Every structure is written in C-alpha cells, then in structure tokens.
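User: As part of a screening pipeline, I want to sanity-check one entry by hand. Below is the sequence and the SMILES for coenzyme A. Please return the complex as structure tokens so I can compare it with the automated output.
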Amino acid sequence: MSDKANIKISKKAEAIETWNFVFPNQSNPYGNMFGGELLAIMDTTAALAAIRFSGKTVSTASSERVIFKRPIFVGDRIKTVAKVVLVGRTSMMVRTDVFVDKGESGDDGSKDILSTTAHFTLVAFDENRVPTEVPDLILETETEKKHSELAQQIKDHVKRREERIKHVVEKWS
Ligand SMILES: CC(C)(COP(=O)(O)OP(=O)(O)OC[C@H]1O[C@@H](n2cnc3c(N)ncnc32)[C@H](O)[C@@H]1OP(=O)(O)O)[C@@H](O)C(=O)NCCC(=O)NCCS
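Assistant: Here is the complex for your manual check:
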C-alpha cells in the first residue's frame, strides 16, 4: 500500500436537504403522515448525507431515538435535513431532522416547525461491500459540537442497552 493510501483525510460534513409535499397516499387513516413513509424519506436523506461525506456506497445499520414530536398532515411541505455528526472507523451517525415549512405564517413567527428527529447509523462499503474507513469528522461550530456529543451519548447508551438485553436476545434468537 502506498503512503498516500494510508493518509486519513479529515473533513467537515455538509447538511443535505430534501423537500417533499405530503400526498394523501402517504397518510394514515386519520390524515396524519404515516410514520413509515416519513422514515423512508429520513433514511434516504441520511444516506445521501453519508454518501456525500464518505464518497462511498452506504447501508443503514440502525436507527435510534426517533422522536415524532409534532404531527405532519396531508398537504404539508416538509424539509428533511441530514448531517453526519459522529464517525467511527467505518460507520457514520447522521442526525436527521424534519421540519414542516410554514412559509411566513408560522404561529411563533418562524418558517419551520421541527416535527421529527432521528439518528441513523450508516456503514460505508468498498467495491466488494466490505465496511471501509470513513474520513475523520471536523467539528467547528458550537451546534456541530453539541450534536456530536448527543450522538456519542446515544451511541454509548445503545451499547449499554445491548449489553443489558444480550441474554434475552440470545435466549429468543
Ligand atoms: C451494517 C452491516 C454491514 C454491518 O455488518 P458487520 O458484520 O456488523 O460489520 P462490522 O462488524 O465490520 O461493523 C461495521 C461498522 O458497523 C457498525 N455496526 C454494525 N452493526 C451495527 C448496528 N446494529 N448499529 C450500529 N452500528 C452498527 C459497527 O460498530 C462498525 O462501526 P465502526 O467501524 O465505525 O466501529 C451489516 O449488518 C449489514 O449489511 N446489514 C444490512 C444493512 C441493510 O440492508 N440496510 C438496509 C436496511 S434499510
């Protein structure tokens, strides 16, 4: 392997935005957007952010802490924002927020209302679909640092939870 191949690059993550208009076929029987439809949009946006950051193909390994804070209704315009906030060796945690766009008429004067937040972990692959190294993540702003700390706490919490339920999983799998 050449020296060049051993140098690990460091880079900032970009926020990737996707926009959707909520159609009737994306709703549950009560007129709210169906959670599964929303998760598909969030997962796709998270994958785009992870691909953009790593320059590799990726696959979702897990999702954590999905919080459906406010409902989304048919006819709403939604903006999904995804950004890599924490990296491991081959994995990336991507914070994904969904906002309902209220134009200029939000009740609190804001244009966007935060509806849903989730953290997805995606793994980067080489051409043989073997997990491969991702760049180191440069954190600059206070928000980036805060979001990264939260992601680390979620990751640590998941690890502890996996340990705690190990005997149950082993028993039932
Ligand atoms: C994700 C996958 C490649 C991991 O395979 P694996 O054999 O566990 O791979 P490794 O042990 O080399 O782990 C690779 C990385 O994934 C992470 N990882 C593996 N399983 C994980 C999980 N359930 N949650 C979070 N991270 C996970 C590991 O911690 C490791 O991260 P690191 O390199 O940053 O430390 C494999 O489970 C897979 O292909 N799953 C199916 C993915 C898929 O089809 N997704 C689409 C569903 S929408």
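Points to compare against the pipeline: The pocket of coenzyme A is lined by residues 59-62, 88-91, 121, 123, 131 (CB under 6 Å). Residues 3-172 form a domain with the Thiol Ester Dehydrase; Chain A fold (CATH 3.10.129.10).
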